[in-house]
Amino acid sequence: MPDASSAAVELRDVVKRFGDVVAVDHVSLRIAPGEFFALLGPSGSGKTTTLRMIGGFELPTEGEVLIEGEPQGYKPPYQRPVNTVFQNYALFPHMTVAQNIAFGLEMRGVPKEEIRRRVSEMLDLVRLSGYERRRPHQLSGGEQQRVALARALINRPKVLLLDEPLGALDLKLRKAMQLELKAIQEQVGITFIYVTHDQEEAITMANRIAVMNKGKVLQVGTPQEVYEQPQTFFVADFIGDTNFLPVQVMQVTAPVEVMTESGTRLTASWAEPTLRTGVKAVMAVRPERMHLYRPGSGPEGPEWNRVEGIIRQVIYKGLDIRYEVFVAGECSLHVRMPVGRSEGTFQRGEHVIVAWPRAAARVFRSES
Amino acid sequence: MSATPTTSTPSAGQHRLRHVLGQWLFHLYGFAGYAFFYLPILILVIFSFNDSRSVSKWAGFTLRWYEAMLQDRQIMLALWNSVFVAVVSTAIATVLGTLAAMALERYRRFPGRLIADITLYLPIIIPDIAMAIMLLAFFNLSGIGLHIWKVHFFGVRLAVPISVIIGHVAFNISFVAVVVQARLAQMDRTLEEAAQDLYASPWRTFWRVTLPLMMPGVLGGALLAFTLSLDDFVITFFTSGAGFNTLPVRVFGMIRKGVTPKINAVSSLMLGFSLLLVTLALLAARGREERKVGFF
Amino acid sequence: MNELLQRKPGLRAWLLLAPSFLWLLIFFIIPLGIIVVYSFLERDLYGGVVWKWTLENYRRVFDPLYFKTFLYSLWIAFLTAFFSLLFGYPLAYYIATRPEKTRNALVLALMIPFWTNFLVRTYAWLTLLRTNTGLINVWLQEWGIIDHPLPLFGNTFAITLGLVYGWMPDMILPIYAALEQLDRSLLEAAEDLYASGWQVFRRVIWPLSLPGVIAGTMLVFIPSLGAFVTPAILGGGKRLMIGNVITNQFLGAHDWPFGSALSVLMMAVMLLATLIYFRTGGEEARRGGLG
After folding, report:
1. What CATH superfamily classification does C58-290 receive?
2. What is the pLDDT of residues B245-283, one digit of tens each?
């Protein structure tokens, strides 16, 4: 393994079972040094268990966890060069803020003088200078969150594990903390592995995202890749809003061709490799990639898909307008159009053409 | 004004009267209930100051029964025996019970859990008389515990049968375990994970995080064990053999010989001890409350 | 070693449990086994046992002489539980309906006698109840309310009163715990609707407090059945309970096998009561009781 050392964390075919339940199912991942890596998935997807195996709180049933190329085996948490920011912060209630932050250094026998210096550095970094003597319960949620971060970062871990660290904060504070966390990560240059169920949060902060469901990693990629080129129905569905049209596969080699239930032929840029001609599938298109035109207008040609429909609902959202379009015999499509386009706005009940480029359409095996 | 329906006024008034009367009776009942609990004890204490051998006819105030008590070497020896047995058995039971509570709370499922549960909880359910004869038969058959521990305790020479201490520990472990387990159940387990994450070995995690946080529970358990040990009569009576008295065993012997205000005086002393312990338990519980507020 | 412990949490659990488990195994479980074995052996003339198996001890338990005492103990335990419930329930209800501060003070006030020595509390009643020199009879005669002393001592009344006094807090606390969890507005509504109060009680409050009632009944019944001190002091040597008979077999008559058989039977009854308790949804009740 010549390049094993270049990964900050590597999981090799890791399995975790709790009794009969498979929490993590053959997961392999390589996370590069300095990366902000997000584990994204719904609750019960195995993302937290994966994180806990890296931290040493759980041991893999099968497979191996490597940190900087070194297999961790049965190493307990206190022997691993990683630190964790817990979901509920887990600040020691019987210690002050300074004592909490100093705890890790103290355990490693760092001289008192150095501890004092580094604690005050850390408090500066998380903008909590002057809070040294307070107790955790005297702090707000956001402040507690920053203490938890400082308490972990002061140890200069090779990897920082964050388990839904913003989950307990309200929306506005969460948005602010997302930017702050990202800035701190860039400043200290430590690898962050970040567990969240919030796709927007993952997309905002991470360099790369692993989408998990039912213990499996479904896709790993940059936020853009995961958003624009989902590899499975689940990923397309879980991340962002997506229109799904039930279709039948006509041709699986590029250009992919499908037919809707009412017989309209559509083309797509990509189809799931396991699909065969003739089977039922779904076509996925993001609402913002669809455009509305008045009948008889709009782009045509092999690169474009067109269906007819009737506007059922119009919702004004400030930056854009969201239309719900009923396509006869098919389904409802959601279309998102920026305000101030030349066509003007459409009215409820109006007949329209919904058009989207081939490049925006992908075909998946349907999951239900 | 004149249109007020006349029928509703008396019925509302009646209803109110019944309500007030009911409340008043209810208060009276509550008062009577507490009188039932406290009056016998109060009378007992009052007659410990009675200047007569009678414990039912008041003949003036005196402290002579307390003097007699203090000069009674047997009572004083029994007092020191009681305290010594309570201190030693509480210390052992608290350590053992706390460890057991940690195992039961921490590792919810493990092989043999049911056996561990039964062994730990059975001593709470089984009445002390059954436990007492079991221990008597055991010590008699095995010869274990017949050893006499000769010790200087605050300058007093005591000779304590090991069997008594063994018995007291045996019934106290379970109570300590229950109290500490209740405390541990409220504790956030991620705090220990956080300590381990911050390079604290299990040993240091225990001393720096687990123990400080469960301390109110440990103190509460220890106080309960101390009280139960001081109060125990039956198990001591059966396991001590002749010639060894704790305060309750001595009092029982005195009662059998006849009622005197001296017994009232000793009883009042024991009551004083109990009150002191309740106060301490209360302070420990208050500490617990503050921690709780502090944490959430 | 560390690796093994890390891999096997059960091993760590048992390491922590080992000291107390071994202590209780040697000084509780084995002694229990000894008593069970003894109950099937014959006695020898000097108070020891002869290693010959027999069922004679259990036959003797059903000898009317002893069986009567057994039934009497059950009767006393029943009476104690009954009166503790009868008088304790309204008191628990009273405490539960007070404002919070008063409530806490009242619970504490209940804990104090609970923490004081059982022997002392029994002795207190001895000085009150004794036939000729007991405070109650002396005062009642002095005030001319009665001519002759009332039979307050050395009978079922005295023993039951002593046990109710000793164990009633064990009845009140779990009931209080159950009542306290009730919606406050529900209780206030019940008070407000005083006219139909009985209905509200019977249909709402009583069913909801039942777990506490069951737990309390268990906590009073079991120790009352095994009582030794109370009948010894307040029974005046005239009325014996099973605990006294067992004591006599071990300390007086030196018939350990028979004493063991009596104890095994007593514990069997208690086990049965406990099983019934768990069957009737006692798990909830137990939590209320301990909390």
Report:
1. MetI-like (1.10.3720.10)
2. 999 999 999 998 888 899 999 999 999 988 888 888 777
Do residue A125 and residue A193 come from a single domain? yes
Distance, in angstroms, between B272 CA and closest chain C CA?
9
Cα–Cα distance, C155 to A275 (Å, whole number): 90
In chain A, whose CA is at the least distance from the CA of B204? Answer: A107
Q: Which residues in chain B have their CB less than 8 angstroms from residue A107's CB?
A: 198-200, 204
Q: Decide if pLDDT at C24 tops 60.
A: yes
The Cα C153–Cα C130 span in angstroms is 5
Number of domains composing chain B: 2
Contacts of A74 in chain C (CB under 8 A): 2-3, 6-7
Which of B200, B212, B293 comes nearest A78 by C-beta? B200
Higher pLDDT pick, C201 / A60: A60
Indicate which CATH number applies to the domain containing A314. 2.40.50.140
Say yes or no: A204 and A261 in one domain.
Answer: no
Same domain, yes or no, for A211 and A255? Answer: no
Angle at B152 between CA B147 and CA B155, to 5 degrees: 155
What is the C-alpha separation between A361 and A247, in angstroms, rounded? 12
Query: C132 in contact with B at a CB cutoff of 8 Å?
Result: no
Expressed in angstroms, the distance from the first to the final Cα of chain A is: 41
Q: Which of C17, C228, C263 sits opposite B116 (nearest CB)?
A: C17
pLDDT at residue C286 tops 50? no
Neighbours of B271 (CB within 10 A): 22
Q: Which residues of C touch A60 (CB under 8 A)?
A: none
Q: E strand or H helix at A281, and its extent?
A: strand A280-285
Q: Which two tokens stand for residue A159?
A: 């990897």
Interface test with C, best of B121, B138, B235 (most C CBs within 10 A): B138
Element (H, E) at B40: helix B8-47
Same-domain pairing of B39 and B151: no
For testing contact with chain B, the best of C97, C117, C262 (most B CBs within 10 A): C117
Instruction: Provide the 3-class DSSP secondary structure of residue B158.
Output: strand
Residue B53 lies in a domain: no
Sheet of A331-338: strand order equals: A291-293, A351-357, A304-316, A320-327, A331-338
CB pairs under 8 A between B and C: 232
Cβ separation A135–B294 shorter than 8 A: yes
pLDDT at A2 over 70: no
CB atoms closer than 10 angstroms to residue A1: 10
Given this model, what pLDDT does residue B2 score?
A: 43
Quickly list H helices, C63-205.
64-96, 100-115, 118-129, 135-142, 156-180, 184-192, 197-200
- Do A152 and A282 lie in a common domain? no
Contact C115 B34 (CB under 8 A): no
Contacting residues for A217 by C-beta, under 8 A, at least 6 apart: A27, A28, A29, A210, A211
B201–A94 CB contact, under 8 Å: no
- Cα-based angle A153, A157, A163 (whole degrees, multiple of 5): 65
Instruction: Provide the number of CB pairs (under 8 Å) joining chain A to chain C.
Output: 9
Instruction: Show residues of chain B in contact with A57, CB under 8 Å.
Output: 193, 196-197
In a domain, B210, yes or no: yes
**Of residues B194, B199, B200, nearest to A86 (C-beta):** B194
- Which of C105, B201, C160 shows the shortest CA–CA distance to A56? B201
Percent of chain C surpassing pLDDT 70: 88
- Structural domain including B24 reads 1-47
Output the domain CATH number for residue A102.
3.40.50.300
Q: For residue B55, is it within any domain?
A: no
Of the residues A200, A216, A234, the one at which a domain ends: A234
> Domain range holding A328?
241-364
Rounded Cα–Cα distance for residues C94 and C87 (Å): 11
